[in-house]
């Protein structure tokens, strides 16, 4: 009835990896990266989220239904952001005021 | 498919309630466990969309007013935010170990790890309270006592700056971290209740499903913070 | 209790204490609780509509004291009809009742959450009724900013609170359905043996779960802006009002699919039964349901073509809106093809289903017209839009709901309804509906704006026709309430399968026992085991003898 039992070693390894990524995020914020800051920060945050999801939340050990639910939720957030931004970023492309 | 493995501690069962109770709508324990787990994941999907609405607002305003947001972000305490992230990641570790303890039917470890998780959650709230108080002192709470800081006013004479978008950052900051803190409070309450029920031997079985489902919620609250920290605190740390 | 072993033959209606209804976790009783609630809310929303139509009989504002009163009426009409009637209707009444029966389960996955979702609806609904009693709200059900946040003098925050709370009812129902369908199907009930009603409700649940939270955040932000006077959407305070519309419509467009998809599911059950033919294109309809749910999330900007949204975003949304019509059209073609060479019986449920197919098609085609940016610029915010969505919501969803109630009434109550009255009501609804709403297409095209209580005199004839239609429609709605309630006075002797329909829900008693099935069935065949040749000859299981 139970799922896979994750070893203490795995748990601690993931935690250490998360801490390393955290310090990487903070460190990278002080580097002169200009417009790369945001994509880099989001990538590192995504990596942390993936580690938490795969190992702490046991996605690595479960079958595909929970995978689909977690991926779908992120996809839907993506839809909200992408299509909303498509409005804001394309305003002013035509030289018509207000369009 | 997941492998079904049960690891039992050696010796007689710890309590008469060794087998989880099967609710009558389910055919067997595996179906019940599956349903609980999928149910919590679907609930987390709704939470992703709930925070997602705020993230959409944040995205739109940051995209259209990057400078104001960068300036505003510099008034947050990067160090305290980092400390809070460490605390929350640590609480996720202890929660994962609690789930493991429940799976191994190790009641004492389970109680300890649940207690540590809740305690770390409370520490997070304490640090957050310190930050909020600091923001209160610096007149950065919209709707309460918001005043544009003097150096920002000085900057805005040199570069075009919309003070209303500067305030917008703080509206979103307080709403997003406030909503996160609310979810964390619910999580702490949930973990504490689970600890109490475990201590009173009230949970059927070793509480494996219940603790796992609590863990999923707790890790989700952690993941939200993992994104909030860089988005709110690390926009532009150099002045 | 007697010493002799008593046969466990108690059906779920044998419950005479208030506690056994208010504290029930039986999905069937919860379905009935919902039915009572939404019927109440339907008549509240209908009363608002009645007063509006009375006002609109004359070009001048003479029934109401002020235009403000009219604003409050159309707002409460929209809020109550959408959030407290249409969204819960088929899912919470028929879905709750039927899904466990149709998949061969004893209940939903989370029965206590199911009861909780009804209580949440009642709490939100009470707040909404309170808002109504204490003066109402005048922003329209769409709560557009900055009027709702900065300028309206009505109970916006309580109304927003009611909507916020009620959203969780929807979310919990959707969550319950998704988990139940994934994990609790009977042995042998594969995905492609599920009735299409279940597919439709599964797709609806996806929308409920993924869209409603964004509505919650958008009304919460409205409340924050209104209470704290901070600029989130108010342009004077640096906000962007279009952002509210993006967040609001991100939910509210998929919401219309929450309202119509279950109706499509009901039609997919009724048409094969009353044509005695298996459904044409089962997999296409199943996949179309999911496609509608997914594509429905990509089109919300078509409500915002003239709002200030960028032209390029408008074009993208327009194109995607054309795409979302395709799966709906596939369904219409498949239902129609199902009837071809069938042995058609025009019983009341079938009349409602046929009405749905015709009226939904008209509503859908006018939706395509609205999806074209050029046409929309002309008819946006006119009665053309009002007619379009009423064709879908009333001509579509409400007719499907009534059809479903009639189709499954013998299962719900153990009694048959009076067939002649049923047919008469269906006809009355159809005639009343078209007389009410078809003139509104013309009115909109001619330029009459919506949400106005006065209009130029040349529009009066069409408005009078519309009001006349509304009075007929009202009769059509009151009749079923009367005769369905009256039918409860008869003994429950409809039998397990009076329609000789196919489906697990018809394999158990009418009304079903508390635990649904004496023994969990093992499924070996697909749904829709109908054939027109066997229409008259039936075997003991209620299937056509030729199978």
3D architecture notes:
The complex is a heterotrimer of chains A (99), B (239) and C (547). With 99 residues, chain A is mainly α. Helices cover 69% and strands 0% of the residues of chain A. Chain A has one domain (8-90). Chain A is flat, with a radius of gyration of 19 Å. The model of chain A has no long low-confidence stretch (mean pLDDT 89). By secondary structure, chain C is mainly α. In chain C, helix 10 (282-295) packs antiparallel against helix 11 and helix 12 runs antiparallel to helix 14. Chain C starts with 17 loop residues before the first helix and ends in a 60-residue tail after the last helix. The model of chain C is unreliable at 1-8 and 537-547 (pLDDT under 50). At the A-B interface, helix 1, helix 2 and helix 3 of A face helix 1, helix 3 and helix 7 of B.
User: Which descriptor suits the 3D outline of chain B?
Assistant: elongated
The helix tally of chain A amounts to 3
Oligomer classification: heterotrimer
Number of helices of chain B: 7
Strand content of chain B: under 5%
How much helix, percentage-wise, in residues of chain B? over 70%
The radius of gyration of chain B is 22 Å
Helix content of chain A: 55-70%
Average residue pLDDT of chain A: 89
Total beta-strand segments of chain A: 0
Provide the structure class of chain A. Answer: mainly alpha
Largest sheet report of chain A = none
Spans of chain B of at least 5 consecutive residues whose pLDDT stays below 50 are 1-16
Shape of chain A: flat
User: pLDDT below 50 for ≥5 consecutive residues: which ranges of chain A?
Assistant: none
Judged by helices, strands and strand pairing, the structural class of chain B is mainly alpha
What is the compact description of this entry?
The complex is a heterotrimer of chains A (99), B (239) and C (547). Chain A has 99 residues and is mainly alpha-helical.
Primary descriptors:
heterotrimer, A: 99 residues, mainly alpha, B: 239 residues
Task: Give the SSE map.
The complex is a heterotrimer of chains A (99), B (239) and C (547).
Chain A: H1 8-29, H2 37-56, H3 64-89
Helix pairs in contact in A: 1-2
Chain B: H1 29-64, H2 66-73, H3 78-103, H4 107-137, H5 150-158, H6 163-199, H7 208-233
Helix pairs in contact in B: 1-2, 1-6, 1-7, 2-6, 3-4, 3-7, 4-6, 6-7
Chain C: H1 18-22, H2 27-55, H3 67-86, H4 89-103, H5 111-133, H6 147-151, H7 156-183, H8 196-228, H9 241-275, H10 282-295, H11 311-339, H12 348-371, H13 373-379, H14 383-413, H15 419-446, H16 460-487
Helix pairs in contact in C: 2-3, 2-4, 2-5, 2-16, 3-5, 4-7, 4-8, 4-14, 5-7, 7-8, 8-9, 8-10, 9-11, 9-12, 9-14, 10-11, 11-12, 12-14, 12-15, 14-15, 15-16
